[in-house]
């Protein structure tokens, strides 16, 4: 049916100018000569109402028929030049369990009603949101393995057997590059593991369902890498464990997106939930600061650094906010995206040179690796 409709559209532009007269286009939409689902029909009406030049771009129409979105539709929506004709998603009844969850995710993540409806109608289970789920499962498995092996469920970095893990970041092993990433699988106790797993599942899975595995995995791993690199620069004697860098990147990006689009967000009790999230995140940072400088038990080495939390939050507010704001739009075409990428690469190069030369030049006394 879509190919038949596209062939019909070609007759509206017989001279192959790339544009269709608004009169012909309006008549086409009003008489429903194209059999479209309601969400696409609304988009067509938005395109007509936002046009001031008496013509419609043929390529934009083709992209819409192919289930793609272009900036012209977003501008039309942003200018408020159309109203929604159908009932809002919350009024729809008779949905299955999965569709109800998709509707919840749409209202939880997206600030624009048209984006929510577009996502609701276009959502498919393939590919599934597997990245956050796999990371969480691996973190739980690693924690259980070390808990059984050491016969301890409250692990600490001053325990030699725990620190001998090839996954922990330790300044004495910073030449082993994989540790700048692999530390996210190690946790020092059920409290830290539970907090990180709960947050990344509650926030990360809906974000991944809407924005896709590539964007969310990029955001999460950028927070993880920024966390360990920041510790290697600002807290040079401290080890790092836990996935807090990635978790705080997801959380801060989502919270910043809610604040930036406060009026459009339809998630219930958003103010109360934001306050609770900020209190929980601040409490976790405070706990990490306290453990870093005032450990409850005497230890033979420094406690894990808290700087990974803060750097992850910075990554989320900068890179993450841009990723979440541009739903189904190409990041490569945005100047601000390249500014963020350039800044991150600059920080990465600086951190590499710092780890190679600064420790010896500054004479930092690194605790001996286990």
Automatic annotation (TrEMBL):
| E.C. numbers | 3.4.21.105
Q: Which reaction does it catalyse?
A: Cleaves type-1 transmembrane domains using a catalytic dyad composed of serine and histidine that are contributed by different transmembrane domains
Entry's transmembrane regions: 130-149, 180-201, 213-233, 245-263, 275-293, 305-324, 336-357
One Gene Ontology BP term is: proteolysis
The record, for SUPFAM superfamilies, names: EF-hand, Rhomboid-like
Look up the record and report any one GO term of the cellular component aspect: membrane
- Catalytic machinery residues: 244, 309
Which Pfam families does the entry link to? Rhomboid
Which InterPro entries did the record assign? EF-hand-dom_pair, Peptidase_S54_rhomboid_dom, Peptidase_S54_rhomboid_met, Rhomboid-like_sf, Rhomboid_IM_Serine_Proteases
The alphabetized UniProt keywords are: Hydrolase, Membrane, Protease, Serine protease, Transmembrane, Transmembrane helix
Gene3D superfamilies noted in UniProt: EF-hand, Rhomboid-like
Q: Where is the Peptidase S54 rhomboid domain?
A: 175-325
Question: Belongs to which family?
Answer: Belongs to the peptidase S54 family.
Question: Which purpose does this protein serve, as stated in its record?
Answer: May be involved in regulated intramembrane proteolysis and the subsequent release of functional polypeptides from their membrane anchors.
Query: What is the protein name for this chain?
Result: Rhomboid-related protein 1
């Amino acid at each position: 049916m879509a190919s038949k409709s596209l062939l019909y559209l070609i007759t509206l532009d017989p001279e192959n100018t790339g544009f269709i007269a608004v009169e012909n286009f309006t008549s086409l939409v009003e008489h429903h000569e194209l059999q479209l689902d309601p969400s696409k029909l609304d988009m067509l009406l938005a395109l007509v109402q936002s046009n001031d030049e008496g013509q419609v771009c043929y390529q934009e129409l083709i992209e819409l028929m192919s289930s793609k979105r272009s900036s012209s539709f977003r501008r039309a929506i942003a200018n408020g030049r159309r109203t929604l004709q159908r009932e809002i998603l919350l009024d729809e009844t008779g949905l299955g369990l999965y569709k109800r969850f998709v509707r919840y995710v749409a209202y939880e993540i997206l600030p624009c009603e048209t984006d929510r409806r577009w996502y609701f109608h276009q959502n498919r289970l393939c590919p599934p949101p597997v990245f956050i789920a796999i990371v969480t499962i691996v973190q739980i498995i690693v924690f259980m393995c070390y808990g059984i092996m050491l016969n301890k469920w409250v692990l600490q970095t001053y325990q030699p057997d725990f620190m001998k893990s090839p996954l922990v970041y330790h300044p004495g092993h910073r030449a082993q590059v994989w540790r700048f990433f692999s530390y996210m699988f190690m946790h020092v106790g059920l409290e830290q593991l539970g907090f990180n797993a709960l947050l990344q599942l509650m926030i990360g899975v809906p974000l991944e369902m809407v924005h896709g595995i590539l964007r969310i995995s990029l955001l999460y791993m950028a927070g993880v890498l920024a966390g360990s690199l920041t510790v290697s620069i600002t807290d040079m004697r401290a080890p790092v464990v836990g996935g807090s860098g990635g978790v705080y990147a997801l959380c801060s990006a989502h919270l910043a997106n809610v604040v930036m689009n406060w009026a459009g967000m339809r998630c219930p009790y958003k103010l109360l939930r934001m306050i609770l999230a900020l209190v929980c995140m601040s409490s976790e940072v405070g706990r990490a600061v306290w453990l870093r400088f005032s450990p409850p038990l005497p230890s033979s080495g420094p406690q894990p650094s808290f700087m990974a939390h803060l750097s992850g939050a910075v990554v989320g507010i900068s890179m993450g906010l841009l990723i979440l704001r541009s739903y189904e739009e190409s990041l490569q075409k945005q100047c601000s995206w390249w500014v963020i990428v350039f800044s991150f690469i600059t920080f990465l190069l600086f951190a590499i040179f710092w780890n190679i030369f600064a420790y010896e030049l500054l004479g930092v006394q690194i605790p001996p690796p286990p």
